[in-house]
Every structure is written in structure tokens, then in C-alpha cells.
Amino acid sequence: MKKPDYHILVCNSYRVAGDAQGACNKKGATNFIQYINDECMERGLDVAVSSTACLNVCAQGPVMVVHPLNFWYGGIDSEEKIDEILDALENEEAVEAYLISD
Ligand code: FES
To answer: pLDDT tens for residues 63-94?
Structure first.
């Protein structure tokens, strides 16, 4: 099996028992999954996109993580920000302004 070059996780606030109801979901993170998929395909980026359970940094949501680079982004609430992140990813770089600090 050919594994993708990158794996983007989009927090969708799923809880162990029950529906998505956390911060990222409420801030509209679900709307971006299709957009990220479409943009990656258009750019020729080999990316798998997954929605996840809560990543425990809710206050900084919506949260998006790019592996294997381990870039954790917060406040990703627009297609423009996603475009910036994917522009940087094409060079394996991060958008420092959106990185979640330690
Ligand atoms: S709901 Fe997204 S980090 Fe907790």
C-alpha cells in the first residue's frame, strides 16, 4: 500500500460516547474537510485528511495538525488560512502565525 506523504487531522470534537459537540465543531471545523481535500488534490499534494476526536487544545480551536511534520495549528477558521497552510506545506514549511505554542 502506498502511504500518503502527509496526514492532516482536523479536530471535529468527537467525544468517546456521543456526538461531536466540542469547541472546534462549534466553530465550523467540519466545513473545511472537503475544502482541504479538494485543495490538496488541486495542488498535487499527497495528503490523507481525517477528522478526529478532541485533541485537548479546545481553547485554540479550530485545530488542524499536519503529520509527519507535527505542525499544530489553532484558530483555523477560514479557507484563506487553510490556503496559507497548504502554500507553506508545499515547501514543507509552517505558517508560524497559526502554530499553537507550547
Ligand atoms: S474540540 Fe478540538 S481540540 Fe478539543
So the answer is: 999 999 999 999 999 999 999 999 999 999 99
In the reported structure, the alpha carbon of residue 95 is separated from the centroid of ligand 1 by a whole-number distance in angstroms of 20
pTM score: 0.90
Which ligand 1 atom sits nearest the alpha carbon of residue 29?
Answer: 2
Best residue for ligand 1 mutational test, from 14, 33, 55 (most atoms within 8 Å of Cβ) = 55
Give residue for cell 508560524.
Answer: 96
Q: Among 3.40.50.11260, 3.40.640.10, 1.10.150.170, 3.40.30.10, name the CATH number for the domain at 6-98.
A: 3.40.30.10
* Cross-sheet strand order for the sheet of 47-53: 47-53, 6-14, 64-67, 71-73
